[in-house]
Amino acid sequence: MRLMSAETFKYSKTITLESGQKLHGLQIGYHTFGKLNKNRNNVIWVCHALTANSDVMDWWAGLFGENDLFNPEEHYIVCANVLTSPYGTTNPVSINPLTQQGYFLSFPQVTIRDMVQVHQILAGHLGVDQIKVLIGGSLGGQQAMEWAISQPQKIDNLILIATNAKHSPWGIAFNESQRLAISTDRTFYANKPDGGNKGLKAARSMALLSYRGYEAYHATQLDKDNEKLDDYKAASYQNYQGEKLVKRFNAYSYWYLSKAMDSHNVGRSRDGIEQALGTIKAKTLVIGITSDFLFPVSEQQYLARHIPNAVYSEFNSMYAHDSFLIETEILTKTIADFLDESLDGKVVKMQTA
Predict the structure, then answer these.
(1) 323 lies in which domain range?
(2) Which CATH number goes with the domain that contains 106?
């Protein structure tokens, strides 16, 4: 039986976002698993990806679980729902305490740094002064990187998976195309919780193409009936995945989350990207996926070159970018090897898996 707590923290102070806009009545949804030990040195903090939630045991099972590498018997595992996401943290469909109406498209601009500011507020509330392992993939990796730069002394080990130092023009183009799909749904401007649902369905369908790729679709969605003229498996799959997200998410959160991802640039106001990465003090493992064409390995190799003494590892999988959620056996071995080395204070050389 796991020691789990799903809670909400209400912050009484007003926060100032990177844009200069203010946010009042901040609420943070989060999960914790296990207990903080007496030395307060067993914290594993997870930063989640775009449409995930704070229940890391659910969406990263195999890496996080009772019998997995990161388990609640040994560790105090924390995962917070990110700012703008609809799973417990303040987001565009939340009620604005100043107007008593939903924010919707009046929600303030949010960046990755704002998400990290919210994580840091929660860490203070939980009494977390030091993080043994800070880990994230994709958007989660962007958050973890920002945190390690903004508070370098507080992170012991940093694990960055399928992520980048600055969101690429390629990634921004994918996100903008999805926002264009959402904006063609006129209900998006109705400022209702279900506004833009048809556009969100189309956006999710587009996103999946960047998460997987040719090999995965050929392996899982190929029709073997040579006489077929319609109702293809791949088409049904796109519809199903789009509808699945609509049932659990909202178009406004998706819109703002994609904008936040576009904003990611660790070099902003820090004299450049390389200078910013050079301030990271955590022992760092960077993991790339050779089949990932949304966050290609050149981006992770760049991180490993410019983060002091970083270790680089990569692997191949037909699941492309989504592999960081699926290939947990590979991740377990790679991360366990790294932590054994780093926690023993040994020098770890660059490696390729």
Answers:
(1) 4-167+268-343
(2) 3.40.50.1820
